[in-house]
Write a structure and sequence with these properties.
By secondary structure, the chain is an alpha+beta fold. It contains ten helices and eight strands.
Amino acid sequence: MTEARFKRARDHISSFPGERLDLATLSRIAALSPSHFHRRFRTLFGMSLHRFTQLTRLKHAAFHLAHGTHPITRIALECGFETPDGFARAFRRCFGITPSRFRRQQDWRVWRKPLAELTIAENRYQRRRFEPRDVTIRFFPATPIALMMHQGPAERVSETVQHFISWRKRNGLSPDRAATYTIFFDDPAETPPESLRIGLAAGVLRALPAQGDAVTLRTLPAGRCAMLRLVGRADTIEDAALFLYRDWLPTSGERLRDFPLFCQRVAFYPQVPETRAVVDLYLPLEGAST
C-alpha cells in the first residue's frame, strides 16, 4: 500500500530526527519520486513534510531538555538543527519560550497546542489490529512500588509525570535502575475528567525514607494476568485495552481479578525512539498459578 511507504518515511523521521531528512532522502526511503512524495505527504498527514520534520525535532529536543543533562547546544545539534541560534529561534517561535527557560520551568502546558497537530499526524495509519494469539497468560509476582497518584483530566497527566520524574531522580530510581509502571484505576469513558485516577509507579528494591503525601509505598499484587505487548507509540494503549476487555475476555473463559489494568513501560521515549517503545499491558485475572 502507498500509505505504508509514507508511514515508513514518517517513522524514520520520528526515529532519527538528528539525521539528514531532506526530500531526496525521505522519498528514497518511501521508494517514490520526490515530487509525488512531497505532494502526497501533506494530503496523507495534514501538514507539510518540512513542518512535520521541524515539529518532530522540537518535540525530541523538548524531551531531552526536560529529562537530560546535555548542554542546550549539544541537544540542538543532535536534534538536527544546524546552529544553536536557529534552534532557539525555532523553539521560541513554536512554544513562546526559550529552551533554557523551558528546561528550568518544564511547563508542558506551552507545548500542548503547538504539538497537537503533530500528534494527529503521528497517529494516522497507526491503528494496530490485535489477535487472540497476541495475548499470553503470565504470573505476575508481587512487586513493591513507590506510587504517585494523578487525579484529574488525562490531558494534564504530563504535569504529574514531571513531578514523578523529579522525585525519581532525587531518590536514585531512574528507569534504568527501577521498573516503570502505570496503573489505570478508572475508565476514562465512564469517569468524569476531574475524578480520573492514574497511578505512576517505580519498582523499589530497598528501603526509602518517608515520602510524605505525594508518594506512597504499595505493592502490585501477585497473580495471573493476560499480557499484551505493544511496540510503538504509547497512544495504542487505549486500543489494546479495548481489545482485551471487549474482544479477548468474553471468549477467553477467564474472569477478572479485583485489581485494575496496569502496564510496565519496558522501553520508552525519549530513551528509545517512539516507534521502538515497548509496553507490556497486564489485565489481572482470577485463578491460581500453575
